[in-house]
Amino acid sequence: GQQLNQSPQSMFIQEGEDVSMNCTSSSIFNTWLWYKQDPGEGPVLLIALYKAGELTSNGRLTAQFGITRKDSFLNISASIPSDVGIYFCAGQIPNAGGTSYGKLTFGQGTILTVHP
Amino acid sequence: DTGVSQNPRHKITKRGQNVTFRCDPISEHNRLYWYRQTLGQGPEFLTYFQNEAQLEKSRLLSDRFSAERPKGSFSTLEIQRTEQGDSAMYLCAGLLAGGGFEDGYTFGSGTRLTVV
């Protein structure tokens, strides 16, 4: 099946530093999503990307949909302690009939630790 | 409050027992998705419903798994004859009719199953 390779697996940074993580796939996606998950909770959407080349920001977060439609990155600027958590990329595979809308493939996650 | 409720939050069961989880989306969620998330991994798609119709099932959903969504409202996921490998977080997500990911695709907090 489709797989998303997310890197790095974990990051340990100091408060105030910038963070970058990325995802690559062997398949084309028509939508890229970035989620954050806190322990014992479900994933919460951070950014959604719908077009190849699209660059979208949400506060200190910036994400881009790769031109090839097979990759995406997420940047977090000026990290703060509450940024701690697990970040997941997720993609939706194109489906001509639209019947698989909402069926997502997730990466393995990046564990972010921020030291004050 | 994400609008999607899952019960129970935690379930410990002995191997071989049957378990049932429940997901209550908001009434406007015409699509409902089930995912499984094992430790250190991203969520994996299991199945989804459009209203009461189950439209797709993953190969991960063995014969011991069954999901229902009577009347297109709440959904249940049953696992029969549980095995230790079934230990995971089971997540449910709802999608608003005509909604996009930003305003319409919401995960619940999950049910964590431990099979001993």
Produce a short descriptive summary.
The complex is a heterodimer of chains A (116) and B (116). Chain A is built from no helices and eleven strands.
Topology:
The complex is a heterodimer of chains A (116) and B (116).
Chain A: E1 4-7, E2 10-14, E3 19-25, E4 31-37, E5 44-49, E6 55-58, E7 61-65, E8 71-76, E9 85-92, E10 104-106, E11 110-115
Parallel strand pairs in A: 2-11
Antiparallel strand pairs in A: 1-3, 3-8, 4-5, 4-9, 6-7, 7-8, 9-10, 9-11
Chain B: E1 5-7, E2 10-13, E3 19-24, E4 29-37, E5 44-50, E6 53-57, E7 65-68, E8 75-79, E9 88-96, H1 101-104, E10 105-107, E11 111-115
Parallel strand pairs in B: 2-11
Antiparallel strand pairs in B: 1-3, 3-8, 4-5, 4-9, 5-6, 7-8, 9-10, 9-11
Low-pLDDT segments of chain B? none
SSE pattern of chain A, N- to C-terminal:
EEEEEEEEEEE
Distance from N terminus to C terminus of chain B (CA atoms, Å) equals 31 Å
Number of strands of chain A: 11
What percent strand of chain A? over 45%
Structural class of chain B: mainly beta
Helix content of chain A: under 10%
Q: Report the structural category of chain A.
A: mainly beta
For the sheet with most strands of chain B, the description reads: 7 strands, mixed
What does the model show?
The complex is a heterodimer of chains A (116) and B (116). Helices cover 0% and strands 53% of the residues of chain A. Chain A has 116 residues and is mostly beta strands. Chain A is globular, with a radius of gyration of 14 Å. Chain B is mainly beta and 116 residues long. Helix content of chain B is 3%, strand content 52%. Chain B has one helix and eleven strands. Chain B has one helix at 101-104; strands at residues 5-7, 10-13, 19-24, 29-37, 44-50, 53-57, 65-68, 75-79, 88-96, 105-107, 111-115. In chain B, the strands form two sheets. In chain B, strands 2, 4, 5, 6, 9, 10 and 11 form a seven-stranded mixed β-sheet that branches. A four-stranded antiparallel β-sheet of chain B has the order 1-3-8-7, with no helix packed on it. In chain B, a hairpin with a 6-residue loop joins strand 4 and strand 5. The longest helix of chain B has 4 residues, at 101-104. The relative contact order of chain B is 0.33. The A-B interface holds A 1, 4, 6, 31, 33, 40-45, 48, 88, 90, 99-109 and B 2, 4, 9, 31, 33, 35, 40-45, 48, 55-56, 59, 91, 93, 95, 100-102, 105, 107-110, 112.
